Amino acid sequence: MKKIIPFFFLIISVQMAACKKPFKIIEPPVTVDTSFFARGADIGWLSEMEAAGIKFYMSNGTEADCISVLKSKGINSLRFRVWVDPENGWCGQADVVKMAVRAKNAGMRVMINFHYSDFWADPGKQNKPKAWLSLNAAGLNQAVYTHTKTVLTALLQAGVVPAWVQIGNETNDGMLWEEGRASKNMGQFAAMVAAGAKAVRETSASSKVIVHISNGYDNALFRWIFDGLTANKVDYDIIAMSLYPSVSNWSSLNMQCLNNMNDMVARYNKEIMISEVGMEMAAATACKSFIQDLIAKTKSVNQKKGLGVFYWEPQSYNSWKGYKLGAFDDTGKPTVAMDAFIN
User: Fold this and answer.
1) Residue 188 CB: number of other CB atoms within 10 A?
2) What are the C-alpha distances in Å from 50 to residues 17, 114, 196?
3) Nearby residues of 298 by Cβ (< 8 Å), 6 or more positions away
4) CB 211 within 8 A of CB 174
C-alpha cells in the first residue's frame, strides 16, 4: 500500500529543509513589577547573623525565618550591599546571590547596592578595593563596569532580576577616592557612575539605576551632586536618600526631606527613594511615628515619584556589631516601629 503524506506536512518539511538555521524560541525579557510602593529593609547582615546562631521571632514569640518575620510586618522589598572582595566573604558576590534568591523566593523585590569597596563605603570613606589600588582613572571606570556586570550576570543566572541597582553607597563626595572624589573631580566621579549604569543597562535592562547620598534633608548637598551628574550627562533613574534623625528632630527633618524630594523632582525630573532610615531601638514608639510620617510624605511627592522607604538593618538586635538603631528588641522580636510598614 502506498503511503500518502498530507500536503501540509509536506509544506512544513520543505520550509524546514530550506532553513539554514534551526528554529529558535524567543522568550520575552524578564521584568519585575515596581508599580507598588516599596516598604523595604536592608538586611545585608542577615546571613552572618544566622551563621552566628542568631534567632528571630514573630511578635507572638514563635521562632521564624527572619524574612518571614519582616514580611509579616509589611516588608515587600529587600536591599543587599555588595563588596568586591570582603575578607570573610560576607556581602561578597556569592553571599549576595544566595540571599537575593531567598528574597525572590519569598516574593520580595530586590535592591542591589554596590559599594565598590571591600568593606564599608559611606560619606567618611570611599576606599578602593585592594585589587583596584594600582588602577588609574580609566582602569577604575572599567573595573566598575566589569564588577557590576559580573555580579548582575550571576544574579540573573540564579533567576533574580533586581528591581533596583544602586551605583555607589552614600556618595556625598563621590567614590573610589581619590580619583573619584567629587569635590576634586566631579567629571571623574560622573564617569564612574556612568560606567556602572552602562553595565546595568546592558545586563539587566529592566532594573532602575539609583544614585544615593545621605542626609536627605540637605538640599544644597543634593543640588551640588546632581547638578554635577546632570552637567556630565549621567544616565540614571532614581535619586536615593538616607535619613537618620533623633527622637527630638525627626519631624523637622522629615519636612526638610519632603521639600528636598519635591525639589529633586522639579529640578531633575527623577524618581525618589528613601533607601536608608533608622532610629535608636529604645525609641521604638517615636520611630514608628517617624516612619509612618516619612512614608506618607514620600507617597505625597509631586507626580507620584516617591517610590519607597527602606529601614537599614532592622533585624539587628542586642547591639549586633555595636549597632543600636535596629528595630528588633533584645528578645529577637520586631518592635512596634516595624508596624509602621504594615499597609
Assistant:
1) 21
2) 58, 23, 31
3) 37, 258, 261, 272, 274, 306, 307, 308, 309
4) no
Alpha-carbon torsion (108, 113, 117, 119), positive or negative: negative
- The SS3 assignment for 24 reads coil
H helix runs in 118-277, sequence order: 137-157, 186-203, 219-231, 250-268
Handedness of CA 11, 13, 19, 21 (dihedral sign): positive
Compute mean pLDDT per 10 residues along the chain, 343 residues long, and list them: 38 38 36 79 98 98 98 98 97 98 98 98 98 98 98 98 98 98 98 98 98 98 98 98 98 98 98 98 98 98 98 97 97 98 94
Name the grid cell of 40: 523595604
Q: Residue 92 carries which DSSP code? A: S
Q: Where are the domains of the chain?
A: 40-341
Q: Are 239 and 279 in contact (CB under 8 A)?
A: no
d(CA 245, CA 254): 9
Hunting for cell 543566572 — which residue is that?
A: 157
Closest of 284, 319, 162, 290 to residue 216, by C-alpha: 290
Cα–Cα dist 204/29, whole Å: 9
Look up the CATH superfamily of 40-341: Glycosidases (3.20.20.80)
| Residue-wise DSSP of 101-125 | HHHHHTT-EEEEEE--SSS--BTTB
Map residue 238 onto helix, strand or coil: strand
SS3 152: helix
Through-space distance between the first and last CA atoms of the chain, rounded to whole angstroms: 73
**Cell of residue 255, nine digits:** 519636612
Contact between 99 and 47 (Cβ < 8 Å) = yes
| pTM of this structure | 0.90
